[in-house]
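Incident log, support desk, overnight shift.

02:14 A customer reports that sequence design results differ from what the structure should imply. Their input is reproduced verbatim below. On-call engineer (initials T.W.) acknowledged and began investigating.
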């Protein structure tokens, strides 16, 4: 650049990075949250596996007293422990329960009574009712005098979807994930920006009230100061979040190792979700993960530059709060755009948010991971954000220099 305006930025970067990474608060928060994420993901993973292998206590049921208060003819021949009675006030013992079938306002209701000291849990009773309710469904169609073909038709669910030629239809689960996963990534980035935005602003004005800046500007220009500080603080934030993400992944992997000894055939819910997402799409591949990581870093860096830009014109620390209010405007605008546009169902508006830098930062990492965008499209959007960041650095340097001299 002209007159080497960024000369010395690496010295500013190293100084700022080292000074902040040695702070006790940074070290303690990084280690503490990493431990919590590791233990939490491992614990939840193992608990879900243990719960899936733990049998419900339906095997503790000795007798089931069935009270049918409807006109349905329920076939209970498959159950040898069901006894039909007419007394709905019968008190069950520890190993029995009373099931009452009633009809109310054009719907059928199954109610299960358990003794206070019952050895059968509510979970076990509900598990039994889930299977028993199928008999009620069959009895409804028998009562309506439907033949087997008509029953089969009545049991079939109806679903609809619109796809382009050559594309595969998405399941309901895939559609839900396509909405929720981008929101999840969006929230993570929003939290990162809000956590570190104020720190970057404070760093930008730290030397203005001291003689250090006068000494610093002898060897480096304001543009180098701005670039070095923002890069250092954003790199520090990315490093911290990377440690936390790796801790969560290691916790999940450790849980899987423990689960193999509990139940080798168990598949975690995360594994199932990934399988659903990847079915019929180019999702969570190596290329997609790399592009998503780069896009997330560039998007976060862009907002760090914005935080630096609004604080570059601040001379005193007392004026910082008003500057942070200006910083929050694009942060919230991009966040709510990504949250609200998918709900509207406007595909054109959704495509636009993927290329406008302030909203793309929240959007494209998740979209390329789950296959809503190709790696090439995500790369183009990332380049747009990077160019925007460089332009903002130049503007920030101009503001910073103007306020100094």
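02:41 Re-run completed on a clean worker. Output:
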């Amino acid at each position: 650049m002209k007159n080497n305006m960024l000369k010395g930025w690496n010295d500013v970067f190293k100084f700022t990075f080292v000074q902040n990474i040695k702070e006790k608060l940074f070290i303690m928060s990084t280690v503490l949250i990493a431990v919590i994420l590791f233990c939490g993901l491992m614990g939840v993973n193992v608990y879900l596996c243990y719960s899936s292998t733990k049998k419900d206590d339906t095997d503790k049921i000795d007798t089931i007293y069935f009270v049918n208060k409807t006109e349905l003819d329920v076939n209970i021949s498959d159950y040898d422990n069901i006894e039909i009675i007419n007394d709905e006030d019968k008190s069950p013992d520890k190993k029995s329960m009373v099931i009452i079938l009633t009809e109310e306002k054009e719907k059928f209701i199954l109610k299960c009574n358990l003794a206070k000291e019952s050895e059968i849990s509510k979970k076990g009773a509900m598990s039994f009712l889930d299977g028993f309710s199928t008999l009620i469904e069959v009895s409804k169609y028998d009562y309506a005098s439907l033949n087997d073909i008509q029953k089969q038709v009545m049991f079939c669910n109806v679903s609809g979807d619109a796809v382009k030629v050559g594309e595969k239809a998405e399941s309901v689960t895939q559609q839900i994930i396509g909405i929720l996963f981008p929101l999840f990534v969006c929230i993570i980035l929003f939290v990162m920006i809000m956590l570190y935005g104020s720190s970057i602003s404070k760093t930008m004005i730290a030397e203005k009230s001291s003689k250090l800046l006068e000494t610093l500007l002898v060897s480096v220009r304001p543009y180098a100061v701005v670039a070095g500080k923002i890069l250092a603080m954003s790199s520090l934030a990315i490093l911290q979040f990377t440690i936390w993400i790796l801790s969560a992944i290691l916790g999940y992997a450790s849980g899987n190792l423990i689960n193999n000894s509990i139940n080798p055939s168990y598949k975690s819910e995360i594994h199932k979700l990934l399988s659903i997402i990847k079915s019929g799409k180019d999702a969570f591949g190596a290329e997609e993960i790399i592009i998503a990581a780069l896009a997330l870093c560039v998007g976060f860096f862009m907002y760090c530059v914005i935080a630096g830009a609004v604080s570059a014109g601040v001379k005193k620390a007392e004026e910082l709060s008003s500057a942070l209010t200006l910083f929050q405007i694009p942060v919230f605008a991009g966040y709510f755009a990504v949250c609200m546009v998918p709900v509207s169902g406007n595909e054109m508006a959704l495509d636009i948010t993927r290329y406008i830098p302030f909203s793309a930062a929240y959007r494209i990492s998740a979209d390329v991971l789950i296959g809503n965008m190709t790696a090439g499209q995500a790369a183009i959007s990332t380049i747009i954000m990077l160019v925007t960041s460089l332009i903002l650095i130049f503007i920030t340097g101009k503001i910073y220099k103007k306020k100094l001299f």
